[in-house]
Amino acid sequence: MAKDGRHSRALNRKSSSFTIILAILVMMSFVLLMLLSLGILSLPITSQHFPKANDISSLIRSSQRTDGLGERGEQWTEVLSWEPRAFIYHNFLSKEECKYLIKIAKPRMKKSTVVDSKTGRSTDSRVRTSSGTFLRRGQDKIVSDIEKRIADFTFIPVEHGEGLQILHYEVGQKYEPHFDYFLDEFNTKNGGQRIATLLMYLTDVEEGGETVFPNANRNFSSVSWLDESVECGKKGISVKPKMGDALLFWSMKPDATLDPSSLHGGCPVIKGDKWSSTKWMHVGHHHVKAEQEILSLLGSLKMRLEVGESGSFEPSRPCTLHVENRKYN
């Protein structure tokens, strides 16, 4: 009897151990499935699906979202340079989105200007010979979707960005090397310093029109889309426009100092024409034109309150504020 009891207890212990092991395996399988479904883990891939050279797509949020207009091609991000910090996001926009931005901008195109550092106003300059216009931030759903996508990619809030600028370069037109950051106090009053720029190419360019970084420190000389044969881009790095691609570069270093290696320009268009869209982003909230005028109005407003004979304010008598209805670009 004692022997049978010991045998029974041994079986019970084995059964309990088996149950515990089975429960642990089931729990681990459940956790693994959860991690896979959330995209935190991924299954091994074959060699034909290895990421492209300098691919940093795993460092950004999912780029396979279906928001926006039309279907985008395969999306991946590549390092262009670390001095300045610059990256190419392939197929950031769909063809339909590129065509849409050009379509809504065409009726409003004017000769491009540069910002006067003393007054903050736009002024003509031989440095910039393109034509362009600004879109209102969030002016429609398609523009809002693109701006949200920019915020997801850069981790810079939509409210920190200026409205999209659409630019058109014809044969011979260019933009001489310049900085996007400001060297004066006037232009930093709204949102602070410009921290980064996203340049989106809306068309292919038959010849010319490259974006060039003359002061860039070459990190990846073997990258296929670096065009070293371009005359205006022989110093530094130049990038050939490709419809739907986006070029992100930072005007400030990680320590918040200005980065002189972010000097950049647009090479002259030799054949065809070039359409692009620029999003400038600031360190703080950038108020669009309508917000600026409303804030200015509220700051200087002297409200007329009707006062009774006793000299005290009578809340029963309403005070009406009339604001002129305007259209803002």
Automatic annotation (TrEMBL):
One of its GO terms (cellular component) is endoplasmic reticulum membrane. It is found in: Endoplasmic reticulum membrane. Its cofactor is L-ascorbate. It is a single-pass type II membrane protein. Gene3D superfamilies: q2cbj1_9rhob like domain (2.60.120.620). Pfam families: 2OG-FeII_Oxy_3. The keyword Aminoacyl-tRNA synthetase does not apply. GO terms for molecular function: iron ion binding; L-ascorbic acid binding; procollagen-proline 4-dioxygenase activity. It comes from Macleaya cordata. This is procollagen-proline 4-dioxygenase. The chain crosses the membrane at residues 20-43. It catalyses: L-prolyl-[collagen] + 2-oxoglutarate + O2 = trans-4-hydroxy-L-prolyl-[collagen] + succinate + CO2. Its EC number is 1.14.11.2. Residues 160-283 form the Fe2OG dioxygenase domain. The keyword Coiled coil does not apply. Belongs to the P4HA family. InterPro entries: Oxoglu/Fe-dep_dioxygenase_dom, P4HA-like, Pro_4_hyd_alph, Pro_4_hyd_alph_FE2OG_OXY. Keywords: Dioxygenase, Glycoprotein, Iron, Membrane, Metal-binding, Oxidoreductase, Signal-anchor, Transmembrane, Transmembrane helix. PROSITE patterns: FE2OG_OXY. Its main location: endoplasmic reticulum.
